[in-house]
Amino acid sequence: MYGRKVKFRFLFVLLILLTLFLSVFLILKSLEENVVYFQSPSEIKILSEIENKKIRVGGMVKINSIAMQAKEVKFIITDFKNEINVIYSGVVPNLFTEGKGVVAEGYLKDKNFFLATKILAKHDENYMPPEVKAALKEE
Amino acid sequence: MASLIGYYSLIFGFCFSFLIIFFSIKNFRDSNFFDSKLISLSFLQFFFVTISFLGLIISFVNSDFSNETVFNHSHTTKPLFYKISGTWGNHEGSLLLWLLVLTLFIFLFLLRSKNQTKQYRILTLLFQQIIIIGFFIFVIKTSSPFNFIFPIPNEGLGLNPILQDPALAIHPPILYLGYVGSSIIFSSTLAATSLNYISREWAHHIKQWVLISWVFLTIGILLGSIWAYYELGWGGFWFWDPVENVSLMPWLALTTLFHCILVLEKRLILTSWVVVLSIATFTLSMCGTFLVRSGILNSVHTFANDPERGLFILIFLFCLIFLSIFIFFFFHKVKTKNINSIFWFSKDASILINNWFMMYFLSVILIGTTYPIFLEVITSQKISVGPPFYNKLIVPFLIPFLLIMTIGPKLKWIKSDLKDKSYLILSLIFSLIFSILIIKNLNTSFLANTILITSAFYLFFSTLREFFKKRLLNLSQNIAHFGFSLLILSILFNNIFSTEIITNMKIGETFENKNFKINFVRVEKKDEQNFKSIIGKFNIENSNGNIEILRPELRIYNQPNIMTSEADIKTNLLNDQFMTMNLVQNQDYFNIRYQIKPFMVWIWLSVLLITFGALITLFRSKYEN
């Protein structure tokens, strides 16, 4: 009924659509699993339950809060309203300093303790997480 | 003074755009021959932009702080080399560099396209002028590098110290040559589409330009990657950071485009696909500039968060996309008599299939990079997409990709058969056994790694075999593909065999585990031109009793007052020993990271090998001309 060319075209378009659907499905599915949410200490305080999922916490390193030991670094992240204790063992970036912005990635132990697996290096000395900037403006 | 000259010659250059447009339209209508005046005008435009750029460099060298850009990004104590590289180490200067390369490329294009038709050359020039005008307005209106400040400050603010590095000094110009090189591909494809000029000869002619920008883009990315490896102290070569992804996307599009053009040159099929890819490559380069420059992505490249700039690029980008879509739909005619259906078992088909995979990789990266941005705009939720996302979606598909990359080049164009292909199966079995032997003694996930390494070895051995053939048909392709297999293998082994120790130590302490003993001997202090340096000395004893001394360094720059870690890396052919140290304010503990990264140097070498393959093709096609 249809010519060979039409059949070929039809197959081709079908194949394109199929791969398109497959890739979109795959991408969305792994996005769901691998996305890391960013939260401020205040947002953590109002969480109803603590999930065992990787998150990022951002804020300022509280002045005089860094305590270094052989195995780990302890410090406090604050957004000037609420704060959270962080325990971390790993590489500390150059711009990790008291009174400057920081983003830590890891898992929540409870609402006051955060086990960080990574501290993110920011390249700019004046960097401040947007939430902190907003919090500072309100004051 | 230099800034003033720079500013006025920039304006002059802008005026030349209109002259060029006027004369090209006149030439297009009235004459049958290409008016060589246009070449001179293009040269003059390039000349004025160069003067303007030199003016900026001189202002930087002389530390002329009446210039705002110089004030913001330079300092008198900075070494001369970094004063010069500071010219493009900032938003304004780097856009001027974009403009410089844009005008340079169109001038070179006009010189090198003498045997093309008049209409095609003029139209390419016109399209390129549209881009150039857009960038002129952008530079002059929103980000002029020649703004004055008064009163004149005595001292500048300095350049971000992590940019004060030889690799990063040349990384932007080279990357830009690649990015902006794709503008020529874009303009000439649009010109060829509107004139219905796409032919095998055109494919041959545009192939050179694709290769040139591909080579620069690759080397630019490589330099950035090497820099991130030793300067940021992240201890790797690729982090799926948004700014990295943004450069990888045009690279993928360009690589796909190159392979398509090979098919087009041979068979005159896939014309629409070539047009789409050329448009996509330049659009992605522009998108990259937009994302990186507008401050949407937070990174070392984000110099200024001026919303007006981001908006301008966005509008300009939409105009260009709209223009190209318009031309594509209304002018593009598929030459119906040349449609040949593609046989599934042929070189063309395998290139097409791998194109598909490349497009898949591209869309994964595109979505992973832009999804967080859209989500934040829509729901104001902040998320990040990390390496697991990309690894999970890309790595499994590398297996069929590598298999097809091995088999494809062995097939014939148009139609191939199964005769004499038994060696393909034999070498697959051989690679499988080889990888099982390597993997079985390791406690990594056996199945996934074996399959992956098998397919990489498959490509490796089959390209290696080609080198020993008497008559090598396609040396450049073989070198490039061999380089790619080497790259994948080095990355895989690098991932599997890397070891890392992170600990905090005081001076004089010793860290010990079953494989290593690290002794922090002492620190030395030194004063350099614009920084103070603290150099640590570490003795590392491995389980065989070999002692290695590593000296990582901390630099405290005077202006701006920033501390950076300089890794100490001991490289040999088998592995890199990598060590960084860091000091946290008011603490006696140093944060130490010690890594052994196998085959690190092979990652860089294999990329160079791939580039070398491309260069051979480039010179060969020049020679044939």
Question: Which regions of chain A have little confidence, pLDDT < 50, spanning 5+ residues?
Answer: none
Chain-averaged pLDDT of chain A:
80
Q: Which chain pair shows the most residues in contact? A: A-B, 38 and 49 residues
Terminal CA distance of chain B: 46 Å
Task: Write the element-wise H/E pattern of chain B from the N-terminal end onward.
Answer: HHHHHHHHHHHHEHHHHEEEEEEEEEEH
| Domain unit count of chain A | 2
**Major β-sheet of chain A, in short?**
5 strands, mixed, barrel
Helix content of chain A: 25-40%
Counting helices, strands and paired strands, the structural category of chain B is: alpha+beta
Number of strands of chain A: 7
CATH topology of the largest domain in chain A: OB fold (Dihydrolipoamide Acetyltransferase, E2P)
Principal-axis shape of chain A equals elongated
Order of SSEs of chain A = HEHEEEEEEH
* Terminal residue distance of chain A: 76 Å
Q: Going across the biggest sheet of chain A, name each strand in turn.
A: 2-4-5-7-6
Largest sheet of chain B: 6 strands, antiparallel
Radius of gyration from the alpha-carbon trace of chain B, in angstroms: 26 Å
Strand count of chain B:
11
Key phrases:
heterodimer, A: 139 residues, alpha+beta, OB fold (Dihydrolipoamide Acetyltransferase, E2P), 5-stranded mixed β-barrel, 7 strands, B: 625 residues, 6-stranded antiparallel β-sheet, 4-stranded antiparallel β-sheet, 12% strand, flat
